[in-house]
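go over this:
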Amino acid sequence: MNIVLIEDNPADQLLVREALAAGQSTSQLHVIADGLEAIEFLRRRGKFSKSVRPDLILLDLNIPGRSGKEVLKEIKTDPHLAFIPVVVFSSSKSEKDVKECYELHANSYITKPIDLDEFFHTIKAIEHFWMRAAKA
């Protein structure tokens, strides 16, 4: 299974990697730090022409190039990408952000936990649900 993490914060990238490793995940994690590159990766363009089709996307809202909401809109309006589950994984607790993401057809919205143990538990739970429990 392939998970694409669209996240520009190196610390959060590392935490997601470590959480998956600690949970003995067999998923491959692909990290993209920029919204424009994320779209190129997902559409398999340019230097990403041989990129994998993800089974799950973890999307931060505050990324350079193109905002997370713009990336979400592009994904969910593209018939070749719209079926991929997108979990918005953001530090924002704003009701406005949550509402807008669901209006853009996010599959779920999860606020990043501050506590390290809770962060690890949350990543493991996301992977378990989307990669094992949910059926496409």
Summary: The mean pLDDT is 95. The chain has five helices and five strands.
